[in-house]
Write a structure and sequence with these properties.
Elements (H helix, E strand, L loop, with lengths): L4 E7 L12 E7 L7 E10 L3 H5 L19 E9 L9 E6 L4 E5 L4 E2 L16 H13 L7 E5 L4 H12 L3 E6 L2 H9 L5 E4 L5 H8 L4 E6 L3 H7 L3 E9 L17 H6 L3 E4 L8 H15 L6 E5 L4 H8 L7 E5 L2
Parallel strand pairs: 8-9, 8-11, 9-10, 11-12, 12-13, 14-15
Antiparallel strand pairs: 1-2, 3-4, 3-6, 3-15, 4-5, 5-7
Bound molecules: NADPH dihydro-nicotinamide-adenine-dinucleotide phosphate.
Length: 334
């Protein structure tokens, strides 16, 4: 059946602290008509990512804010519906669809044809997409780990953390994950092959983490901040490196919580480096090649958390900010 409307999720208002369902609004628009050089894409999977929380605020950030009443921004993979652009034919799978919506008209230059033999299409939003590339940049450029060193990563079962830990393992590190709950920790050790994984919600977590890192921590891949960061900090060895990738536990906090103690940074000669994956444009293709090879060889594992239906996107996104997702969160736009 031909679809005649374009369901969308709009930003209804700016959240005050933690976002709530009323901050979003479901709407329907006409299916867009592609302009010259554009391709009409039926989005099939929408990626939900923590950075979207920042875009709901007015404040200036590395990602521009979504206007009130505008379609929530987000990466999609989908199939070409119609195209007057050479190289794009109906039915082909592409990355580059945009927004929490079923259809987008996208400039052909912003689209990339997907290799259906490399992985299922949704994997290009997670393990072989932006989150996987983030893990690759963080572990190879920002805070590389040496063989035999201890590498700790938070949100270890998630889209970025799961890949970061597996890359560190390939680099010869002892890898310790931190995740929320026993099921996630079991997945991280049994499926992903980390040496240990600690539940940050369990009583005695800081002591358990210290026991799991008897030689201290040489590299910390920071994804969450807050109480987890405070538990890792005292374990950092002299000359330890910290890749500050994300601080998801703090994104809705107003005012932002105080940061780590800089005296310790001086005394231990720590290196802290924040990074944004978009500053490393060559890394995406590099990681797609490496990651696809590792997937084929069985050296790289991933897990997706697939929610069905655009109308469930707001609830799923709120869950992501509270740790209710288990694996890369994507919405199947059925
Ligand atoms: P995940 O798939 O890891 O999902 C987010 C996870 O964060 C949750 O599952 C939960 O895991 C954890 N979390 C959420 N709230 C809290 C909390 N209050 N305390 C502790 N943990 C919490 O998301 P991604 O892999 O997509 O993103 C991970 C991080 O990487 C985010 O901070 C994100 O902003 C950042 N990022 C940065 C990029 C960059 O360029 N710098 C690019 C992409 C992502 P658990 O239940 O295990 O605690």
């Amino acid at each position: 059946m031909t679809e005649t409307t374009n369901p969308q999720v709009l930003l209804a208002r700016r959240p005050a602290g933690e976002p709530v369902p009323e901050d979003f609004r479901l709407a329907e628009a006409p299916v867009p008509v592609p302009g010259p050089g554009e391709v009409l894409v039926r989005n099939r999977f929408l990626s939900l990512d923590p950075y979207m929380r920042g875009r709901m605020n007015e404040a200036k950030s590395y990602a521009p804010p979504v206007a009130i009443g505008a379609v929530m921004g987000g990466r999609c993979v989908g199939q070409v519906v119609s195209s007057a652009v050479e190289g794009f034919a109906p039915g082909q799978w592409v990355a580059g669809g945009e927004g929490w919506q079923h259809f987008s008209a996208v400039p052909a230059a912003a689209l990339r044809l997907l290799d259906p033999d490399a992985a299922p299409p949704s994997a290009f939003l997670g393990v072989l997409g932006m989150p996987g590339t983030t893990a690759w940049v963080g572990t190879t450029e920002i805070a590389p780990v040496k063989p035999g060193e201890t590498f700790v990563v938070s949100a270890a079962s998630g889209a970025v953390g799961s890949v970061a830990g597996q890359i560190a393992r390939e680099m010869g590190a002892r890898v310790v994950g931190i995740a929320g709950g026993a099921a996630k920790c079991a997945f991280v050790t049994a499926e992903l092959g980390f040496d240990a994984c600690l539940d940050h919600r369990a009583p005695g977590f800081p002591e358990a983490l210290a026991a799991a890192c008897p030689d201290g921590v040489d590299v910390y891949f920071e994804n969450v901040g807050g109480a987890v960061q405070r538990a890792v900090w005292p374990l950092l060895n002299p000359f330890a490196r910290v890749a500050v990738c994300g601080l998801v536990s703090e994104y809705s906090a107003e005012p932002p919580p105080p940061g780590p103690n800089l005296r310790e940074m001086m005394g231990k000669r720590l290196t802290l480096r924040g990074f944004i994956v978009g500053d490393h444009p060559r890394a995406a293709a590099e990681w797609r090649d490496t990651g696809a090879r590792w997937l084929r060889d069985g050296r790289l594992k991933y897990r997706e958390d697939v929610v069905h239906g655009l109308s469930r996107a707001p609830e799923a996104f709120l869950g992501l900010l509270a740790g209710r997702n288990f694996g890369k969160l994507v919405v199947a736009l059925d």
